[in-house]
């Protein structure tokens, strides 16, 4: 599996910051950030804004501000 595929799959399934995705995949945060930046420029992904918490929590710990966000899992 390519780094591109691994990063986009992990970010799509579990969400989180570039650093969190990098830690889960054992990659450098700068490489993951570069993949996400390029994917955003190509329109492949949408990156959450500064108001978004890290990790897209679910369940009772999910902040009210995350409700309805397409990046958070239900």
What does this structure look like?
This protein has 74 residues and is an all-alpha fold. It has a single domain (3-66), classed as Arc Repressor Mutant, subunit A (Orthogonal Bundle). 45% of the residues lie in helices and 0% in strands. It has three helices and no strands. It has helices at residues 3-14, 18-25, 29-41. The longest helix is centred in the middle third of the chain and has 13 residues, at 29-41. It is globular. The model has no long low-confidence stretch (mean pLDDT 79).
Topology (elements, then pairings):
Layout lengths: L2 H12 L3 H8 L3 H13 L33
Q: Could you say which structural class the secondary elements and strand pairing correspond to?
A: mainly alpha
**Tally of extended strands?**
0
Helix content: 40-55%
Q: Kindly report the CATH topology.
A: Arc Repressor Mutant, subunit A
The CATH architecture comes to Orthogonal Bundle
Tally the helices. Answer: 3
Tally of distinct domains: 1
Overall radius of gyration: 12 Å
Low-pLDDT residue intervals, each spanning 5 or more residues: none
Q: First CA to last CA: what distance?
A: 28 Å
How would a textbook summarize the main sheet?
Answer: none
Per DSSP, what share of the residues sits in E-state strands of 2 or more residues?
Answer: under 5%
Please identify the top-level CATH class. Answer: Mainly Alpha
Q: Averaging pLDDT over every residue, what do you get?
A: 79
Shape: globular
Order of helices and strands: HHH
């Amino acid at each position: 599996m390519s780094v591109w595929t691994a990063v986009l799959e992990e970010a799509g399934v579990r969400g989180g910051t570039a650093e969190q995705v990098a830690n889960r995949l054992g990659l450098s945060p700068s490489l993951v950030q570069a993949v996400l930046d390029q994917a955003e420029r190509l329109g492949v992904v949408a990156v959450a804004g500064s108001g978004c918490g890290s990790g897209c929590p679910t369940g009772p710990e999910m902040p009210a501000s995350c409700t309805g966000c397409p990046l958070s899992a239900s």
